Amino acid sequence: MIAPDPRFAAIDAMDGSEFERALSELFGLLGYEVELIGGFDKGADLVVTRDGERTAVQAKRYASAVGITAVRQLIDGVKRYECSRGLVVTNNYFTDQAIECAEAWAIDLWDRRDLASYVEGEPPQVDTSVCAECLAPVSAGIKEWCLNRPARYGGNVYCRKHQAKSRRSTR
User: Fold this and answer.
1) What does pTM read for this prediction?
2) CA separation (Å) from 12 to 58, 80, 89?
3) Mind giving me the DSSP string for the chain?
4) Which residue has the higher pLDDT, 154 or 153?
5) Rounded to an integer, what distance in angstroms lies between the CA atom of residue 104 and that of residue 130?
6) Average pLDDT, stretch 64-78?
7) Least C-beta-crowded within 10 Å: which of 3, 24, 32, 136?
């Protein structure tokens, strides 16, 4: 479960194609030339170019954490579309395996936190001192554990009792 954020309501309601078009608009506003691949994309949904550097972009509008498969697809897309860089963008978070693979292949990752800098509105105030499920106070250690695992807990904090339940719902 992702922490509620009204700024993402429209993005989270999009389908994959709508998310790709929204990213196309965003990259255009950021000064990139944008090629929307569309259809069967063969590892990249967009190719964006700025200052002569081509970047293959894989867009993943997911309800759960993005796994290693997305990064592997993009590795193919970087080569196929003759790009020097790769970027996976999601409205969610990445699994530890996806992050590890991206680091090994020098693939950039933008998750929900990165996209938040481009959406309008104020971020919601979330009380991270209590469990998101039962509102029981949590220790500093539990808080740190949950917040350091956004792919697992979606930016929420859970007491030990509710951690297992929330883990199952994010997969």
Assistant:
1) 0.74
2) 17, 29, 13
3) -PPP-GGGHHHHH--HHHHHHHHHHHHHHTT-EEEE--SS-TT-SEEEEETTEEEEEEEE--SS-B-HHHHHHHHHHHHHTT-SEEEEEESS-B-HHHHHHHHHTT-EEE-HHHHHTTS-SPPP---TTB-TTT--B--HHHHHHHHT-HHHHTT----HHHHHHHHHHT-
4) 153
5) 36
6) 95
7) 136
Spatial neighbors of 29 by CB under 8 A, at least 6 apart, are none
pLDDT of the residue at 168: 39
Between 57 and 63, name the one with better pLDDT: 57
